[in-house]
């Protein structure tokens, strides 16, 4: 498993997927090798949850960190061959010909619409659009974690992909008192958990909350490397009701925060199915999400949605005026979470890897786009159509 920060998962969706799927594959008797980035103070353990780990360095620069680490990982992998590789993140496309030349069958788990992220300038957006095309052209198979991503690759390239969604842990509505130790009351706060990046709309959420008449505090969990300016903007928008906790890497504490939130606000707009959203619904948190197809796919009519700052304000005010309705929506979302099962996700990866190892590779698309788009387009907002598809 190549192309992520590795395990234990402390960052995003790809890392969560690697840990949850990799550990289960190892339990089933597979030899699972995960490439991890070296951290300050040491290279880390050689094994974790049954997975073998290889720690390699990376250039500590936003535009080169992922690509440099994956390049070293691919070089190591070619010298220590495996039956199959799963490459996470279409941005790693320049290294895919090396795997093909080495005769290692591989699938690329394409990410969300990375080129729409505001942190990338015109050159970065052009790079990510090119990387999408190269991933289509060179990969033996593509993995999409959301219907919207699958639709995008079909519409843009005429390329088929395997839909394998993430899993959602279904959590009990209980805790050890750590929420109270933070000065919070169970079901007595609104919660945001997100990296501080523009397309996650943390600023919009904080601003909308500040303008609301909400009596319950807003707890904001998150940070981001290379995002000092945006972080300062988010903090400046808050008032005395907003609690900024920074990054919380203790998963048990995060789970308690989800399970005891009155509402969970989810501003992610371009990343496909998001593990934070799944953890929230698995904890029974009534969720208010940014209005895009990825979030509708998870929440359906049980969710509430926003686009503007004013939407956030009105939705929060309405939530505090109807606590019984909020609790009902949380229970309904916990039921929806049962459809996102990590064992079923692992079944999908296992079946795909077996097929690739046996040589069952479908005809690849050319990587030529069927339509052209403005490379400088900003993140699209609003719900997009979805179609029914079979889930692996």
From TrEMBL:
<feature type="domain" description="Glycosyltransferase subfamily 4-like N-terminal">
    <location>
        <begin position="12"/>
        <end position="164"/>
    </location>
</feature>
<keyword id="KW-0808">Transferase</keyword>
<dbReference type="InterPro" id="IPR028098">
    <property type="entry name" value="Glyco_trans_4-like_N"/>
</dbReference>
<feature type="region of interest" description="Disordered">
    <location>
        <begin position="366"/>
        <end position="392"/>
    </location>
</feature>
<dbReference type="Pfam" id="PF00534">
    <property type="entry name" value="Glycos_transf_1"/>
</dbReference>
<keyword id="KW-0328">Glycosyltransferase</keyword>
<feature type="domain" description="Glycosyl transferase family 1">
    <location>
        <begin position="191"/>
        <end position="308"/>
    </location>
</feature>
<dbReference type="InterPro" id="IPR001296">
    <property type="entry name" value="Glyco_trans_1"/>
</dbReference>
<dbReference type="Pfam" id="PF13579">
    <property type="entry name" value="Glyco_trans_4_4"/>
</dbReference>
<protein>
    <submittedName>
        <fullName>Glycosyl transferase</fullName>
    </submittedName>
</protein>
<dbReference type="GO" id="GO:0016757">
    <property type="term" value="F:glycosyltransferase activity"/>
</dbReference>
